[in-house]
Structure formats: structure tokens, C-alpha cells
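Hey team,

Filing this mostly as a record. A colleague (T.K.) asked me to run one chain through the structure pipeline before their review meeting, and I want the input and output archived in the tracker in case anyone asks later how it was produced. No errors, nothing strange. Just documentation.

Input sequence:
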Amino acid sequence: MSESTTSPADNPSNPIPAASPQPEAAAAAGPAQSSWEEQIAAAKKEAAAAQDRYLRSVADLENFRKRTVREKDDLRQFATAGLMEDVIPILDNLGLGLAAARQQTDVKGIIDGVGLVLEQFKSKLSRHGLKEIYPSGAAFDPHQHECIAHQPSPEVEAEKVIQVVRAGYALNGRLLRPASVIVSSGPARPDAAEGVVI
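Output structure:
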């Protein structure tokens, strides 16, 4: 009798099961599972850091907004402080002039004193960018002058300012009030048909 050299695994009638692949799959899934958990933990950590940066940025923006509003209010309230410091001595001089006017009978002294205070006032305002517009004899400029009347004049050519009724003012190049002026319409010419002067 010859003996067969078949292994029990090759024999289909043999009920011995083959080696199970599950421990290898579990071993392969183990590192993949821990890799996913690490990635999730890293993503959560990154999301938390991003949330923290976002909240800090929102807080910084809100602080900046509040600081800007506060600085704007301070600027509005105290922007004219330099001007007021220059105007206070003028008020003092006007008070002194008024006190002196009550004691004097010399009108010329009072006029000279008020004239000096007016010049001081104009000088201080000019230091802060205020420019007087007094266009006597200049060409009429509708951007800086307001014509309140036309008047014929043999001495002043047409469209030139004859008289300044009220001075205008500009602050740092921006018009605050136009000068009110009377403008020449040129020499008077007689109307041949009716004999009236225009």
C-alpha cells in the first residue's frame, strides 16, 4: 500500500479550517484607526486655534472701533483749543478797551484801540487758516463772490467789483462765506429810443 503524501489542508474531506485572516486585518486596521483618530484630534486642535484667533480678531476690531470713536469725539471737542487760546487775549483787550471807552471822551483813541484789536483778531484767525476775501476792484468771481447788485460806473469797467458790502471768508482754501459785492455794469449808455440812461 502506498501512502499518499497529501496534507490535511489539501484534502477536501478534511474538516480542519484554514488559518483565519482576521488577526492580520485587525492588525492592519489598528494603525489606520489610530491614524484617523490622530487626524481628527489634530483637526479639532486646529479648529480650536482658528476659533481663538477669530475671537481675538473680533475683540481687537471692537476695541479699535471704540478707540476710534473716542478719539474722534476728543478731536471734535478739543480741535478748536488752539484757536480759543489765541482768541482769549483778544477778549481781554476788548474788555480793557470797553473799560477805557467808558472813562474817555476822546473818540479817536477809542477808534484806534478798537482798530488795533480788530487787526489782532484778524491776525490770529489768519494763523489758523482763515483768509479774508475782500475783492474791491477785482474781477467778479462767482465762486467766491455774491453779486447783490449791478451798478453803472464810468471809472470801473464792466464785471469788476465796485464795492464790497460784506467781506467773505475761506478756511484753508474752503469757502465759508462768499463776499457780498456790487458789480460794475460799465459806463452808463443812453438809450436812443427813449432817452433814458441804462
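Quick notes for T.K.: The chain is about 50% helix and 15% strand. The CA atoms of residues 168 and 179 lie 4 Å apart.
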